[in-house]
Batch of 3 targets.
Target 1
Amino acid sequence: MSQKIDRYVQGLFEGVPRTKKALELKEELLGNMRERYEDYLREGKSDSEAYSLTVASMGDLDELIAQVMPDEHFRQEAQYYRRRSARNTAIAVATYILGAAIVVASALAPWEGVQILAVVILLVLVAGATALLIYTEMSTPVEYREEDQDDRWMKEAQRHPGGQTVKAVMNLYWIVVTTVYLVTSFLTAAWGITWIIWPLAGLLSAIIRTVIALRWQHE
Amino acid sequence: MSDMIRGYTDTIILAQLLRHDSYGYELNKAVAQASGGLLELKEATLYTTFRRLESAGCIRSYWGDETTGARRRYYAITELGRALYRENCADWQTFKTIIDTLLQGEEEP
């Protein structure tokens, strides 16, 4: 369907920093191109004909895209947000570790009350650190955020046609492993030993991934 | 012919927006239909013009609230845009009269 159009527009903006202007231009283009493409289909044009006509109608977009390239101000802002994000992430991670360390240390204390207090402190620290992470992410304007997972994943999928298949296969694989684990555990009641399924399953999944990757390289 | 039209892209777009607010594809389709399919603006030209007119304050843009699919960016004409339109139309009338007169050739007997 119009996925080809999406990919074409995506390609035009490859390497263009995600400034607000660039994202808006991309969204505007995408909407209009899709509509044009669908109109061609409605007129009875074939899939590839509609695609060629739509692409041809765009003309030379280089100049337009050059206009939305970032300026010095954008680069400085981006650097500020990147540093802030790195600093806050480091603080949050250090806080998590500190919380865990307090709990471990409290195990050495002779009174039980200290351990409960340590867990309470841990929870407070975790809440604070998590709030910091969420705040940092939410308060960073979208154009300065790291590329989101979807985009990165889409690029990955383009590079390795079939990446989606692997993802689907691995999802299914882990469901099967979980089922096998639960069924064997309940049937044998040997919970003490059935955990061995997990490391084995992890090993097997690595092997499957490698085999699939090698096969692609051959193709 | 496209060279001659290029100078009037701004005015053509302003004329469309004078009727009602519109977005890229719809506006281009209207232009194509009104010209009997003779004139269709390239997307690149269209968006470059939109951006130039917007930064000049002749049009403004806003996002539609489409519930399905991509959002549309609508453009509306401003007072400044109306003034530019009237000015360009007056220029065109003068230009047309001059060229009409100049091109009236008759072979002398």
Target 2
Amino acid sequence: MQVFQRIGRAPIILVLPALAVLLIVFGVPTVQLFLESLNAPNFSIQNYSSFLGQYANLRVLLQTLEISAIATVICLLVGYPTAYLISTASKRARMVLIVLVVIPYLTSGLARTYSWVVILGDNGLINSALVNWGLISSPLPLIYNRAAVYVGMVHIMLPMMILPLVSVMLGINTSLIAAAKSMGAKPSTAFWRVYFPLSMPGVRSGTLLVFVICLGFYITPAALGGLGDAMLSTFIASQVSTGFNMGSVSASSFVLLAIAVVMLSVFGLNLSGTQDSAPKLRKGFMERFSLLRVVKQYLNELSVASRSKQWSKALYQAQGDGGWSRFAGSLTLTLVIFFLLFPEVVVIIMSFSSDATLQFPPSGFSLQWYGSFFGDEAWYGAAWTSIKIGLAVAALSTVLGTLAAYGLSRIASDFRGWLTMAILAPITIPVIVVGVASYFGLVNLGIIGTETGIVLAHTIGAISYVVVIVSATLANFDRRLEQAAKSMGARPFTAFMRVTLPLIRPGIIGGALFAFIHSFDEVVVTSLVSGYSVRTLPLKMWENIRNEIDPTVAAVASLLTLLPILWMIALYVTWWRARSSSQNTVLEANA
Amino acid sequence: MYGPIAAVTELSLTVRRGEFLTILGPSGSGKTTALMMLAGFESPTKGDILISGKSVAAVPSYGRDQGIVFQSYALFPHLTVRRNLEFPLEMRGVKASERAPLVERMLKRVHLDAFGERMPSQLSGGQQQRVALARALIADPPILLLDEPLGALDRNLREQMQGEIKGLHREFQKTTICVTHDQEEALTLSDRIVVMRAGKIEQLDTPEALYDRPATRFVANFLGEANVLDSPELGFNDQNFRGKVPMVRPERVRISAVNSPAPAELGQSQVVTGIVEEMIYAGPLRKYQVRVGDKSLIVRQHVASGQEVFAPGGSVRLDWLRADVRLLDE
């Protein structure tokens, strides 16, 4: 019991296990890499100058920035109106729309990338249709070019733009728009002068999140792009896998890392300058993960009466949304949702193909590819490996992440900001850099190419997700409940087990689920640290997509497409059930 | 929580056994920190806290044997009302078979016998408040701490709960310390009130004495309304009051027509004339704001039949007894 008293006084002890794993797998090797890139101990910038001195490298770097920037802008231009329409829709419609956006977000990125191969390929959906209708005689070059890269990247990143935007937009009090109009502002003026500035935090988090993830993108450009569309991550990955020059790998990783860090630190800060920057930095940091929270918020809000919100919305809408604009709105929403979900449908159809090669539409239907998945040890073995690794990652990261989140919630705020930033680093910086760093971390430990190694490499990212979700839950947790328990004679450990734990359990389960998904879908880091001796499902799929072996991958992808529906049900059940005894309800009743 | 600035700098006070003592102050006066220290959630950097002569400053909250009613109650949302009430008994090691009758009796006492199986979220604000009180009292702690106990209730319920709290205090005779910023709550519930300001005790006395004989300008203004008579038109000059400020409560001031007969006790009264700036009708009373020279005085008059009503703009005569004037420290 003495131990718990001491922990109560020094909550940082709870963060230490998570920090230790992070440092060993990621932090120390990052420093080593940095020293390596500078040719320590004889410091020089030779690696950087030779990296930047080569025209080809420079071109790849600029191309990486260009592709990321353009993909981000497209996501913003499509995502902003979509998010606006979602956030102003009726409550029921809003919930359905958010679920439709979350499903692709939870679907395996490989499966989604593969669907575009099916749609855009020479024998794919579009080309076959055009040839059949006699519009063209030979297939158009739709795939393996820059346009295909943008289509694929926007498809993957769009939910990550929309969800933070929706989360911020829902927080905007719509009566402010009504107020602006009552003061004589035209609808467009009210939008630009009031609504848009208030939605800026969402724009900032969505844009940053999408841009930084794009910087580290590897799978989609490699699968859909041509030879000339290589991104820096492809370049780094190929160097790591083909007996590389460590100085060059580390220099290029740090160039990428530097760009990401500059972006995060410049735009992560509050640009509006209304509040002091220190707390804002932390908030901005968490805001970027609000997409996780918006899901929860939504499932929670199902039956919470929000009459005031609706009243102001009614007031706002009463001021004239014409039939035409409503039609344009529905059309936009339909197109975006179609763009997000149609590829998944195509993959499901494709998986029942009776053809021997990739072509769409299939000439007949059969279960042969499911048969070849469940009949081939290489496939189901890989799936089993992935499940085992995923469960181990979920267990480890849930324990470490929950302890860390609980400890963080008790640490003085300045220090907490820095610690949170460190713990979230694995999911905020480009994934290829995390991959390179954990590669060296596992080499240090001598467990490269083992399942344990992969579990550790996945755990650092998974801890970040658990910390984000559990912290969000703890933020809603009224600390006075714990004080109340103590005032009634409960010791700190008893108070935690009897009061805190039952109330944050939904967050912990959600965190475990995201940790599992993170591990189960992970391919970039895994491909670097697996050393060709461990085969996970995503690795096997990736190999199959790259070599266009056969449509077995379609069967796998269609199975993976069904998983998010299971996840949604699991989340719904956990969070909805929690609602019935939720403290939020109590606080509302008291408010 | 408050950084390096001490939230409470000087707080030396003795609470009598069985007494209802209220710590009253505006936000930032240090009253919440004081309560947190009493509850054992924060420890004083200097000084000590004694209960029945024993120091508890280093004892954590779970070792103190106190009942606390939190602001917005802190009922455990995942436990039924019954399980909420059982919690403190369970933590003190009371056997399950002995817990049930105690819970039953307590539920009956707060008129919630039919609500034992409900979740806290299914109760109204007043019912939640009663569960919180019952939970704080059930393990029979010698001390009861209340944090803004009525703050979350609407006006009607608040009056009803005031009665309930007084009844429970009379019945259980617990030494009770209440923290609030609400002067009405403090005046109606307490045996004695401590008024705090900027981390220090401003005045400690019974409700009646505090209201009737405030020691400082701060106390006079914080509890009720005060007419500070610090201008020459009101008979004020520095010499005659030796650094103190004269004050009279609005209900002690009489308002009458300028030409009405002079008050009988002329020698003991102070009389001024002024112009009505504002008249507010508030049910049982009428409130006038009267300008005298460059000062505005407030007059509260109980509404009675046959009374003359003065419209804004008209001249009136104000008078009050010299005996009703109090001298305040700055």
Target 3
Amino acid sequence: MPLSRKTASLFQRRSANGHEKVIWASLLSCALISILTTVGIIVVLLGNAVYSPGKSTAFFEEVSVWEFFTDTHWKPAERHSGTELSDSATGKPAGHFGILPLLSGTMMVALVGSMVGVPIGLGAAIYLSEYASPKERDVLKPVLEILAGIPTVVYGFFGLHFITPWILQPVLKHVFGIEIGVFNVTSAGIVVGIMVTPMIASLSEDVLRSVPRSLREAAYALGSTRFDVSMRVVVPAALSGILAAFLLAFSRAIGETMAVTIAGGHKIMLTANPLAEVQTMTAYMVHQSFGDNSASSIQYKSIYAVGLALFSMTLVINIASQWVLRRFREVYQ
Amino acid sequence: MVAIREISRPSASLNAMSTPAGPVLRVPPAVAGVNRDQDMSSHADAINARRMNFYYGENQVLFDVSLTVPERSVTALIGPSGCGKSTFLRTLNRMNDLIEGTRCTGELLVQGQNIMDPSVDVVLLRKHVGMVFQKSTPFPKSIFENVAYGPRVAGEKNRAVLAELVESCLRKAALWEEVRDRLNDSAMALSGGQQQRLCIARTLATNPQIILMDEPASALDPASTARIEDLIGELCSQYTIVIVTHNMQQASRVSHQTAFFFEGRLIEVGPTTRIFTSPAQKKTQDYITGRFG
């Protein structure tokens, strides 16, 4: 606060305040970087997908939003940028840009991932918070964090070369008599589930442990077993935080790229079969960016449209998880 | 340990007050239902603690505590903070088992059974010996589900049975009239005094014989405190109640028997009227006349 000049020199600003300003400015810019990055990403996505100033055209200037959300095929290779849209032999534009097949792949992988990650993650969290002795917790938590630190490409090959050939294929063949391909949704989903398990476990454990001890004691005093206390009191009391953790994990599963690119495959089709080979939105973006399409081609621009869809989905889910956390939180004195 | 302000206060008036002539303290009238002059010798022992020692790690906090609690009576445990009264209370339903590194020796008979025996099922014990805490601890559930919690974990599923039980327990806890129209509302929305009575109702629903209360009214306003005290008077015809309290007036109003703890030892136990009018121990007298603690 600037003091009046009339006050004693004892309280006068010193030149050292200049350092304060430098520190303030550099810390502020660190804080702003995350915001600027987000803004930058949104500008790039919108600029290539929705509206492009200047000569080049954005994705949605060539493909209608209606087609994008309703067409059940995604066949970018058959369409070429510019004139062919209206100038095709059949009179209809060639190629298809319907996001649904990619979306179905993404959602299926994320759902399988949630089915694997949610029960395991929550179970681990309950064990760590309610059952484990301090010693066990000291061992288990770091191990869980190591699991979270394994590069996702390793998980991809783990799915492709272990889960599919050593678990899924033999089990499905001998138990159900079903043959499945090397690439499939289930193995991708399982590895994604394993990947999000530490995240669910760690976030859920935090909220479980924040349930006041007095509530647990009250439950024990009413003749509860440890399981009663966990399932009837602690988990319900922490439910908002647990749901928020699930949503964040789901959003992470949707955005997961490398493992699903490797284990999920690259066949783009609208299916609800979890044993089929699919390409997810993220995997499509990887494939397309390594392809030999020019940066001005509609195929290349479609990356941004898919990216924008993905960004919107995860943004909505993250906001939803914040909302759940606030809306349903129990306040303890 | 405890800061004791016992050290020489050279006040003539205080010295005069502590002379053994006449009653040490005027004892306030007891709440309805508590007859302090009643002879409890015909009542069987609900709790019989013999030479109990208790340790937090290496730190011993209870020394050779022996105390008998008659059935269907109220026993107040008083003493300064850290004197071990709460720890003793929590040994009675083995609540201290939940704290790592604690150890207890001695013999503790509840309804004639030694509950320190490793073969004792603490889950069953705690249904038998209920507990109400200082801070009201309603579960973040509806009022109905709070009271129905105990019966539900005990396996009761019949909605009609539960509804009947919830009503009778809420009536016993003098809360029914206030909440009968909003049983499905969250218990968190009740006032502090109502929450505490809800916790008492919840404890009654497990059908205990003994109810332990750890300063049940210390966080409540005077009106709510009076309601809790009246409730204790009503409940003690059916239940054995052991209550820890910092409030000596409260102890004298609600209890038949008072036990004074100091530095982990049971200094004196006896009929409440006697403890408050002619305590046998100097320490007890100093404490109840407010010279320390």
